[in-house]
RNA sequence: GCGCCCUUAGCUCAACUGGAUAGAGCACCUGCCUUCUAAGCAGGCGGUUGCAGGUUCGAGUCCUGCAGGGCGCGCCA
């Protein structure tokens, strides 16, 4: 099944070919001038250049062939040689019924399924998530869903930051504060026999009541600051980190406790945001791969000694700049950020063997990934071009600088959601919406409104551009916002409930009113929005489509009475509303946004 | 210093292989709730696409230069 644009493109391409011109010129796009046409083709203008002929003359030839097409009610040449097409109401009605009957709501699938891994969010142990993680989570989740919906086999990986210097800092800080933990560490680290599972259970239970996530959140900033200021403190943390990485029993157990409490809380927060991972692989998971990998890289002759460190040079001929090498082993003998990333590429090759990996990470790390990717290609861990960095801009405050709270700190993800939720509750009450809902449903609705507000605010922008996070604006809930989209969806749901109550059924769609035409043309444009989002890894195409669809529905809703119409018309309009709702909810779902039943 | 990205309406952002009159939302102004949810709808106001050149029948889009802003550039992640 193909959309109108594609179907017409084929016809126009054939017409160009019949005129002895390249078929590619027959590409049809939605019209820039809806007052004149539904679709247009600019091919005659392009042809004129190479064929050195009058574009209007070329267009005339093509138009003559197209005139007989039953789908078109009008074909005209306009301006310098634009071919304008108006689709007949019959063809539009047919297409509407096709979409209504399609479980995919008019969306096509990829021709060949690929195995895709999406690496996003990247939360860390102890370090609280901040707004920077928000964009990666939101964009990554949307990309994952869009790829999956298009038919690829997609796996989303949180890429948990659980294996660095921050762990040494935390271990030290917790021991300093808690004599029990210090004693436990001394006891376990001194062990010569393995810890039994029974002992392990007891130790975890003891830690559970003594070291909470709040403690970690509180201790980490202090420890990080102290580590910056005091050499001795820093050295101890380094030593503890090394001891952890050499799997000293006590530290390793304590670390597992840190990782577990953090992960539990993070998964809960992510889930509340509509972000769920298939894999929750940590940096620690590839630790064992590093030593053999380094040996293998050495055997392959890729490692070079330089200033006491071991590096891989990745510069290529024709580079415009001096790309730094990948630092594989530091002069102190430890693995670096890039080492872990490289080992992760290798791990993924053996475990999932992806055709393509998308790294949804801040644009500022573009050079870092370029270096890692090149090293991976050199090592044969991934096919050239199969690793791709999906960069995004920073989220700034209204002052244009990276987003901070009033106090100057970094705003935590949780606080941001809670702030938005509070706004949502206020707005619901102000607008006297949801008054009849029970408290739990009301809260659930407020939560969905908040998530929609946050996510849509982010996803309506192209991911590459930095954008201004203005909570007041986002939570005004008017105009181009997530809540607007939910509101339109809820209006249809309410309408459908009422129709059901009156025993009114949907029927075949017949398009006549201009508002109906516009709505169907938008329903038809869903596939193009998806294709653009997929090919450019840019969810804002889907967000834009959802908004335009909601807008078109709202116009239709205002212009065309539904339940009070004559039975046949009523059934048609009800079907149109129902189809719109299903496509709108599908688009919202791809953005990771869920609509409530009422608001 | 080298490199990458950005600059579009008062504000926040779009603009599909270069195409017609550069579009939305907010703000401001005017209408519309006895009729399916007014977080809505209809209409109005608002532009030398940072500046200067170039390529082209045609440039927000491609090329060059300049100005302003952001970011990155080996032992943090």
Determine the CATH topology of the domain at 413-590.
Isoleucyl-tRNA Synthetase, Domain 1
CATH class of the domain at 413-590: Mainly Alpha
Shape: globular
Biggest sheet details: 4 strands, antiparallel
- For CATH, the homologous superfamily of the domain at 413-590 is named as Isoleucyl-tRNA Synthetase, Domain 1
Number of β-strand runs: 13
CATH architecture of the domain at 413-590: Orthogonal Bundle
Strand order of the largest sheet: 1-2-4-3
- The residue-averaged pLDDT reads 92
Q: How many separate helices? A: 22
Helix content: 55-70%
- What gap, in angstroms, lies between the N and C termini? 36 Å
Radius of gyration: 29 Å
| Content of β-strand | 5-15%
Structural class: alpha/beta
Low-confidence runs: none
Task: Give your account of this protein's structure.
It is a single chain. With 599 residues, this protein is of the alpha/beta class. Among the domains are: 4-87, Gyrase A, domain 2, CATH 3.30.1360; 165-272, no CATH class; 413-590, Isoleucyl-tRNA Synthetase, Domain 1, CATH 1.10.730. Helices cover 55% and strands 10% of the residues. It has helices spanning 4-18, 43-51, 55-66, 89-101, 131-149, 165-177, 179-189, 197-210, 213-229, 231-245, 249-272, 287-299, 337-351, 366-379, 413-430, 439-459, 471-474, 482-501, 514-524, 526-535, 540-559, 567-590; strands at 28-30, 39-41, 72-78, 82-87, 115-119, 153-157, 303-306, 309-312, 326-329, 356-362, 387-392, 395-396, 467-468. The strands form four sheets. The chain has a four-stranded antiparallel beta sheet. A four-stranded parallel beta sheet has the order 6-5-10-11, with helices on both faces. It has a three-stranded antiparallel beta sheet with strand order 7-8-9. α13 (337-351) crosses α14 (366-379). It binds one RNA strand of 77 nucleotides through α2, β9, α13, α14 and α15.
């Amino acid at each position: 099944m193909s959309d109108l644009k594609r179907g017409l493109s084929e016809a126009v391409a054939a017409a160009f070919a019949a005129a002895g011109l390249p078929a590619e010129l027959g590409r049809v796009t939605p019209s820039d001038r809806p007052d004149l046409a539904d679709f247009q083709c600019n091919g005659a203008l392009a042809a004129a250049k190479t064929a050195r002929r009058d574009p209007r003359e070329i267009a005339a030839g093509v138009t003559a062939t197209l005139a007989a097409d039953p789908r078109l009610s009008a074909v005209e040449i306009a301006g310098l040689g634009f071919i304008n097409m108006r689709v007949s109401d019959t063809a539009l009605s047919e297409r509407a019924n096709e979409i209504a009957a399609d479980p995919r709501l008019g969306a096509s699938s990829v021709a060949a399924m690929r195995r895709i891994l999406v690496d996003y969010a990247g939360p860390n142990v102890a370090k609280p998530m901040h707004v920077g993680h928000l964009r990666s989570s939101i964009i990554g989740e949307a990309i994952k869903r869009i790829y999956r919906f298009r038919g690829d086999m997609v796996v989303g990986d949180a890429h948990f930051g659980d294996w660095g210097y921050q762990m040494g800092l935390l271990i030290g800080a917790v021991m300093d504060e808690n004599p029990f933990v210090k004693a436990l560490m001394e006891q376990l680290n001194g062990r010569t026999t393995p810890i039994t599972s029974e002992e392990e259970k007891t130790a975890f239970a003891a830690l559970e009541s003594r070291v909470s996530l709040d403690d970690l959140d509180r201790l980490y900033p202090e420890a990080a600051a102290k580590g910056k200021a005091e050499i001795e403190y820093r050295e101890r943390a380094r030593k503890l980190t090394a001891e952890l990485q050499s799997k000293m029993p006590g530290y390793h157990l304590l670390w597992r406790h840190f990782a577990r409490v953090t992960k539990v809380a993070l998964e809960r927060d992510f889930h509340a945001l509509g972000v769920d991972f298939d894999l929750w692989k940590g940096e620690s998971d590839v630790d064992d791969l590093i030593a053999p990998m380094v040996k293998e890289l050495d055997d392959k002759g890729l490692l070079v000694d330089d200033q006491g460190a071991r590096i891989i040079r990745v510069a290529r001929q024709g580079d415009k700049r001096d790309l730094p090498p990948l630092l594989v082993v530091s002069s102190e003998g430890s693995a670096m950020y890039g080492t872990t990333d490289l080992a992760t590429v290798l791990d993924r090759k053996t475990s999932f063997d992806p055709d393509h990996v998308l790294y949804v990470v801040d644009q500022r790390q573009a050079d870092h990934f370029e270096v890692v990717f090149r090293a991976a290609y050199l090592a044969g861990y991934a096919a050239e071009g199969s690793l791709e960095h999906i960069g995004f801009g920073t989220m700034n405050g209204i002052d244009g600088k990276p987003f901070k709270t009033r106090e100057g700190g970094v705003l935590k993800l949780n606080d941001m959601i809670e702030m938005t939720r509070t706004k949502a509750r206020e707005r619901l009450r102000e607008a006297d919406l949801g008054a009849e809902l029970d408290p739990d449903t009301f809260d659930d609705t407020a939560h969905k409104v908040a998530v929609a507000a946050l996510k849509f605010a982010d996803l309506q922008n192209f991911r590459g551009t930095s954008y201004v996070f203005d909570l007041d604006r986002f939570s005004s809930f008017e105009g181009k916002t997530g809540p607007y989209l939910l509101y339109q969806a809820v209006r249809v749901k309410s309408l459908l409930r009422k129709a059901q109550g009156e025993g009114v059924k949907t029927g075949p769609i017949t398009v006549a009113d201009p508002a109906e035409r516009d709505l169907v043309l938008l329903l038809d444009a869903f596939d193009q929005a998806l294709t653009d989002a997929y090919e450019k890894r840019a969810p804002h195409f889907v967000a834009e489509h959802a908004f335009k669809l909601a807008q078109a529905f709202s116009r239709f809703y205002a212009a065309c009475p539904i339940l009070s119409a004559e039975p046949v018309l009523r059934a048609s309009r009800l079907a149109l509303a129902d189809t719109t709702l299903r496509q709108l909810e599908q688009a919202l779902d791809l953005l990771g946004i869920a609509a409530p039943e009422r608001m």
